[in-house]
What does this fold into?
Amino acid sequence: MAKKGITRRGLLGGAAATAAFAALPRSTQAAGRSADVIVIGAGLAGLTAAREIAQAGRSVIVLEARNRVGGRVLNHALGSGGYTELGGMFTGPTQDHIQALATEVGIGTFPTYNTGNNVFVGGGGRREEFPNNTPFGTAPPDPVVAPDIALAVTLLDQMSQSVPVDTPWTSASAEQWDRQTLDTWLRSNTSGSDEFMAVTSAATEAIFGSEPRELSLLYTLFYIAASGNEQNPGTFERNFNTAGGAQESRFVGGAQMVPLQVAAQLGARVLLNQPVHRIDQSSTGPVTVYSGRHFRAFGQRVIVAIPPTLAGRIEYDPPLPPLRDQLMQHMPQGTLMKFEAIYDTPFWRAAGLTGQAVSETGPIKVTFDTSPADGSFGVLMGFIGGHEARVWENRQEGERQAAALQNLATYFGNQALSPREIVEFNWSTEVWNRGCPVAVLAPGTLIDFGAALREPVGRIHWAGTETSTYWNGYMDGAVRSGERAAAEVLALL
Amino acid sequence: MAKKGITRRGLLGGAAATAAFAALPRSTQAAGRSADVIVIGAGLAGLTAAREIAQAGRSVIVLEARNRVGGRVLNHALGSGGYTELGGMFTGPTQDHIQALATEVGIGTFPTYNTGNNVFVGGGGRREEFPNNTPFGTAPPDPVVAPDIALAVTLLDQMSQSVPVDTPWTSASAEQWDRQTLDTWLRSNTSGSDEFMAVTSAATEAIFGSEPRELSLLYTLFYIAASGNEQNPGTFERNFNTAGGAQESRFVGGAQMVPLQVAAQLGARVLLNQPVHRIDQSSTGPVTVYSGRHFRAFGQRVIVAIPPTLAGRIEYDPPLPPLRDQLMQHMPQGTLMKFEAIYDTPFWRAAGLTGQAVSETGPIKVTFDTSPADGSFGVLMGFIGGHEARVWENRQEGERQAAALQNLATYFGNQALSPREIVEFNWSTEVWNRGCPVAVLAPGTLIDFGAALREPVGRIHWAGTETSTYWNGYMDGAVRSGERAAAEVLALL
It folds into this structure.
């Protein structure tokens, strides 16, 4: 049968051959599958979309490049037993969609460890402990930086309220806010002290994998506005806080249990090791999705549910419109590594510490206690993001690990220097991510290209957390985007 | 023989099969070619590199995705006779490398038409004519905007002198300059009036295909510093001026004559219709370059001479290091359309006009007289760039052309409303460009990723105007980059 296909292609030429090939009955394809909808990417967005479509009684196939599901959500089995989480792992208030999905597939949550004092390390190595119940939660009450933090967070929250999460580029001040970086705004509206700016880097490195100089102010305000839901406007505090914020809870068994469970429900609809390199909607026949050397999937509609920078690497026929292509050129992923030190016990708890730190000096500037729920062993997780990641990812492992452990020792004591295991994970080296946690938008992107974010192109629809209105960049946004894309497609089938 | 290859692949698996296949003698490949160096891209950079390598007595193959050479340099045959130029077309003082290459392949230059008055159209539609011999050349002496222009150009020139063109990120002020947009700096250091900011948009739309809000100040200063050569420091005036600047001259027969002549010299070394999708340097055998379904090229070294955003769409084995991959994610192409109106005569010359205009209102804000050298017919060429291009590329052709012609009529009189032919070209719709004229760097890119710009990755070397120290973004930079990459490779063969 493959030979027949080759013969037919040989008889025709160019686009005609492609069309004829695509129009062949599926049964004549050597390695082809067909469904109402083809979903590309088995992260939370793609899996959610597929689940919605299957539940609506339509056929669906999910093509995943990797040999696993979950995308930016990943459990990791430890050599010393147990697991850690290398990607998205926290959830909190107003993240109703990821939580509803988790509940539906039987995955519960437990509170992030948050008892005792947080640690702040400022300039000159001054170290402070403080209860994490200040008005700004995890933000340190250190007198050198606290006034600026209060000022900046209050102003940013206020400004974000005028940014519509579905069309941030229509905000009355969109032009003013999309022509400057967050760095510029912070220096103009606070003391701009070196210490305060170092704290803002610590925050954006962990939240965006980027520096304040890379972030459009408008995009930052959108991201804050998106840290909520239809009933509760977003706030920056909900974004960065533990108690009452996006880091409040964790998923039992690790966040990857959610996509794993959804994938289990989808069963044979999910095909692993299928890296899509081409999408052809040039004929009136089904859309053809090409994976590997030989595999073809045929669908009425396609949902692309992968990071925009990777969606831009797929070949499209006909080519995507220029605004869409250039949008994807303008959506680089942040740079984020996770450093996890595993200890026999969460020793910092006995010292009255939450395991949460904010520091002006890296490589690790933000940490969490990500020990298992039962505390049977201890895990300190630190983010190495933005500039720190770009510098440290190129250094020797030993040098980097020594510097990271020294950070942890400064924050939590010298016991931190002797972990029983170290796990490092750099999302920028992952071919099917090329960065984390989210696409980072520079000035001028939303205002000129934002309209293309969710706009379908023919029979291609776009999902992924970067397309979400609420909790953009988070697991909740991924789930929301999958639901929205599925609804779009179902309305058209 | 193809069957044999398939059989061998069938016996082995995965990487082993790939390595074995790559290591096969070239003669056993159904469609394979080998050479010392494989060059990807037959623009000026790739062709120059190949020419240098061939002249050094080494074998070289150039793989070009299109059915033509020249990249961003393109002649266009007019329906009414003659030709126009749709891409890079001007040259001027200190652009020694493109001019030397042109001379060597027998292509001369002639002066851009520059006799008479330029036109400036400011706010409220006020129209002025002025001789283009002001201290700032093509910059309008209009009293509303001239003081800000003088101030900004003077300051930017001064600042640019401390930016080393090979390592702009090592400038003493690099951090301060790479954390803000050009827009921010302009508003802080001039009156920031609406009129002046509109003029700066006109400039950056034509020069970068972008808005001042998208440009890192450091990148802008680098671009100015790069508008010169080893003996003559760059200046902004040399960048944007006609007399004494980058628009001073044109190439006889159109700029594409240069790559066409170089390609003719290279002969069968240049293979068209070979879109490369994979580069494999995972084995100790030759580097394997994959094009189309079946073609393979084998070389000791590879030079990638295509725009960075397209280089990022190639699959690499082993994968590129994260800093290199993320650099390419951070190098979107500008957005630039050329609008050319063809007239029986260059009627504006009789009215004492150069055909050059700067306007605060688009879609066309900058124009040139690009008539043939003999003036046998008239061509007004207008840039539609940046925000204007992103808006207007999505409107109906008729609406866009009417607006563009109205611009030309405002600048040069109502005769402009009746061209005998219109040519529009949008570089963003070109699959093998996806934008023009150059990659545009946002704040934070040079300082964190700049080190990866020219750093070879194993046996892969990088060319293209975006990698050039001088005349980055110009034809001269492309030629320079090809010479530099060829020298790198030749030293290692």
In short: The CA atoms of residues 324 and 452 of chain B lie 5 Å apart.
